[in-house]
Amino acid sequence: MKNLSIRITLLAFCSILLLASCSKEDSPAPEFAETNLAPFSVEFDNIVGDRTLSFNNTTTPYVNAKGESFSISMLQYFISNIKVATADGKEYAVKQDSSYFLIQSSDKSTRFAKVRVPEGDYTRLTFTLGVDSLRSTMGIDKRTGVLDPAANGGHDSGGMYWGWNSGYIFFRFEGNSNVISDDVNGDPTGKKQFKYHIGGFGGYSAPTINNIKTITVDLTKAGIAKVRKDRQSNVHLFMDAMKVFNGTNSFKIAEHPNVMFSDYSVNIAKNLTEMFRHDHTEN
Amino acid sequence: MNKRHWIIILSISIFIFACKKSEIIQEKIETFLGFQKPANFPEPVYNFTANPVTKSVFELGRTLFYEARLSRNNTVSCGSCHIQSSAFTQHGHDVSHGIDDRLGTRNSPPIMNLAWNKAFMWGGGVYDLDLQPIVPITTHEEMDENLDNVLNKLRALPKYTALFKSAFGSEDITTSRFMKALSQFMVMCVSSNSKYDKVMRKEDNASFTQTELDGYNIFKEKCSSCHKEPLFTDGSFRNNGLSLSPVKDQGLYLATLLASDRYKFKVPSLRNLNYTAPFMHDGRFLTIGAVLEHYSGQVQNLENLDPILNQNGKLGINLTETDKTKLLAFLATLNDESFINNRLLAEQ
């Protein structure tokens, strides 16, 4: 009997706790004030189709829609200009200087874009895949942190700056596939490497190709972001690298093993907009 | 007093005199005037408010320009391909000669009057002087290094931490400071004291000879629409009718991917031609005479040929032999000896 009453008390206690925590979840959205900033993050979880991303797994390679097997050796991209919006249409753009992130899949610590936005309940997230054209034409003083042309060393170690064309590589994806030929149309070094370096911000003076993409994510289905000062709201996105090959403009690695600053890059850049999927939000 | 004493006294006095003279020279170098716009030049386009020229930053830039550690194996400096006595070109090389004796595909252009330049390189692609040095540093055929390594090499040298400190107030060696210092050296490479400039500014009673004046008039009629005074370039990219180079260099197209830019190259200045041979983006012509032959009889009607060179179905520019002699006389008035001998710009 005594045992039971303890159990009941415990249960009651637990439910109170539960209720209390629920009520925290449902706390009304605070007044939207641009100065009332709280932590918010977007997590870029890199996946490949229905598998997690791992490097150089030549024994169990990935296979694209055209049936080509491939492995991945490098995946990194710029995310910038993060914006959030509430259901009633209040928008907030993160201060530009703190809104550039280089997601490097070789370094897990870079998978979060951590920013500060006003307390509020957000139903929409917008960001740029790439570096906006304004920043791409700014003076050397404004190119610090991940935008420093010296960042990451040279191209072999993952540098993202194109000196000869004064711009950044927005999306860099490299790997190997046996379908690549050993001649000039493939990889003459015989390493069977593919390289996709997608950039192009629209040009300094004359208009040139513009591969900057704005990605908008609806958060209502998988969980809105409740940003409060006392917690870390994190929007967890999946970034599916398979979409590079399998997006709307799907293509064969064998036919386009190297795409850098060229007209064809525009087709691939369109596929990149399909890579992001909202999985859930941790509030 | 014997003869020996006299000799000693004489040599001491010569010594004192020599010291005095070198002090005067010293003083002259020491009064650093910063960037000064020549009276006959337009306003510069370089953003001086973001990077105002000071003596200590300029001097750091000069040291960096002549620093071989900017290359992978510490053998090649900017000054290796941009040599002052050749008006900062690589005289005698059609295409650049860089690290490990690798050859590039283009001729080293002069570092001259760059503060008036809107676009850099023969084929564009670089539009801010502060970002230009990344290209030679990282290019395989030039310095084959990466910027991060360069900065780390400099950080390890007390000489540079001290120079950066005196230039910028702290020892931090950052990309921005490094680039700004190099830019300060480069914008100070101003060539504006040729005979032509003196005539234009009515200095030293300078005047053209009759042949030079005739040449000037021909120039104004036939060349100045592209080689615009007083910089002798309008800064645009054009196709002047060269036949395709062996590497089929597509020029501006590579940076813009616009078909209308194929085979267009930056209009170069015509100052200091006496020191900068060979000519054109691939250094194909060894003499100015060969250049004039090109304009008068070898212009090719390839894609995007500039309409100025294709009028009424006639290709090129009509030049008689006397026209050519006169043009050559005028072009010679654009040589600026004080530029190639300016101590301020030399490796110290």
From TrEMBL, chain A:
Keywords: Signal
Signal sequence extent: 1-20
Keyword Signal: yes
InterPro entries on file: MbnP-like_dom
Domain of life: Bacteria
Record's keyword annotation contains Signal: yes
Ranges of residues in domain Copper-binding protein MbnP-like: 39-260
Protein name as annotated: Copper-binding protein MbnP-like domain-containing protein
TrEMBL record, chain B:
Transmembrane segments annotated in the record for this chain: none
Domain annotation Cytochrome c: ranges: 210-335
Keywords noted in UniProt: Heme, Iron, Metal-binding, Oxidoreductase, Periplasm, Peroxidase, Signal
Domain of life (superkingdom): Bacteria
PROSITE patterns: CYTC, PROKAR_LIPOPROTEIN
Compartments, as annotated in UniProt: Periplasm
Record GO terms (molecular function): peroxidase activity
SUPFAM superfamilies: Cytochrome c
InterPro entries: Cyt_c-like_dom (IPR009056), Cyt_c-like_dom_sf (IPR036909), Cytochrome_c_Peroxidase/MauG (IPR051395), Di-haem_cyt_c_peroxidsae (IPR004852), MauG/Cytc_peroxidase (IPR026259)
Name of this chain's protein: Cytochrome-c peroxidase
Naturally occurring in which organism (per UniProt): Pedobacter mendelii
Organism ancestry: Bacteria, Pseudomonadati, Bacteroidota, Sphingobacteriia, Sphingobacteriales
